[in-house]
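Exercise: predict the fold of this chain.
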Amino acid sequence: MKWTRREWIACVAAMGACRRPPEETTRTALALEDFEPRSMLTVPETSVERAMFPAIDIHTHVTWSAVPLGPDLGDDTPFGERVDFLGEPEELLSVMNRKNVDVMVNLTGGVGDGLEATLERFDRAHPGRFLSFTEPSWNAIERDDFPQFQAEQIEKAHELGARGLKLTKILGLYLRENVTTGPLLSVDDSRFDPMWETAGGLGLPVAIHVADPDAFFLPTDRNNERYEELSNHPDWSFYGQDFPTKEAILEARNRVFERHPGTQFISLHVGNRSEDLDYVSACLDRYPNMHVELGARIGELGRQPRRAKRFFEEYQDRILFGTDAIPPPLGNETPQQIFSDELYEIYYRFLETEDEYFDYAPAPVPPQGRWRIHGLGLDESVLKKVYRDNAARLLGIT
C-alpha cells in the first residue's frame, strides 16, 4: 500500500503519542555570578605577544592621588599633593619590555609635591619610558581666584616636567560649588576657561574623562546589559538623584572643545561613547582638536568589529592606543584594567588579528557584559599610527 504524505505524518504523530514520557529531572538553580559558560566554537586562536610597533600607552595609572575621590572628595590637603605609588618602576618596565611598550603615560601624576614625587620616581629615574600628566587642584574651587590659581598651577607643573593635563569624571559627576556640597558644576563652567587655555598655550594635551558607559545612566533593571556589573558596584550608577543626563554632560564637553580650538583634547574611552561610533565620528568631524583612545573599551568596539574597523580606518590619525592599565595594589581595579602581560596581549590580538569570539579581558568572566569580541585585523599603516605616531605627535616625542 502506498501512503500519502498526510497519512505518514499522522502515523508518526500517533506513534509518538504512545511513547512513555521521559523521566522528570531535577533542575538545579544557578546564580548568575556562578555561570561561566565555555564556548563550543572551534575558531583560530592567535597569540600576539608583542605589539607590531613600539607602543605608547597613552592611558595608564602608575600613581594615584591619595586624596579621596568622588563623593569623598573633601580633604584639607590640596588635591593631588599626595600620591600613592602603584607598583615598582622595575616591575612595570619588565612587562613593558616583554610586550614592546616603549612609553607608559601616567595620567594621574598629581600636583605640587605629589607631582614632584611622581616625576622623581618614574619620569626622571627612567627617562623616556614614563611620562606623567598633572591634574587640577579641585579642592581649591572655592577660592575667589581659582581660575588664575589653576592656570598658575598648570604652568608650575609644566616647569616641573608634566607632559599633559588629566581630567577625571570628578568634573561633571561629583565636583560641586563647595567641593562636595551645593549644585554640581558643569564641565563648561567659565571658571575653567583659563585652565584649558593655559594647557593649550603650553602645548600640553588634555586627557578628559567626563562620563561612563551609557548603561550607567539607565535604571539597573532586567533590561540593563550591565546589570551584573552595576549590581556588584551600585555606586557606579548615575541614574536619578541630581546627576545630569549623559547627553547633557557630553554637550557641555563639546562646548569646551569648540571654545578652545587651540587646545588638543584626548577624549578618553573612545570619546566616552564607544557604544555609538556614529556619534563619536560626528564629534571628530566637528572638532579637529579632538582625539580618542581605547582604554577599557575594546569590549564595546570588539562586538561591532565591522563598524569599528571602518572607524579606525577613517580616523586613523586621531586614535591613540591606551589600556587604562592600573597595577594591582590599588585594590579597586577591574579585570579589564589590571596591568599584566595578558592585558596587552588581548589588546594586540584585538587590533592585529581577525580572530573571532574571544574574551576582551582576562578570565574567568568578562567584567562589563557577558559577550565576547572579534579582532579588527588592521593594516600595518593604521597600526603604526595608533600604536605610536599619533601619541608621539601630541606629546612631542621625536
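Check your answer against the key: The domain at 46-395 is CATH 3.20.20.140 (TIM Barrel).
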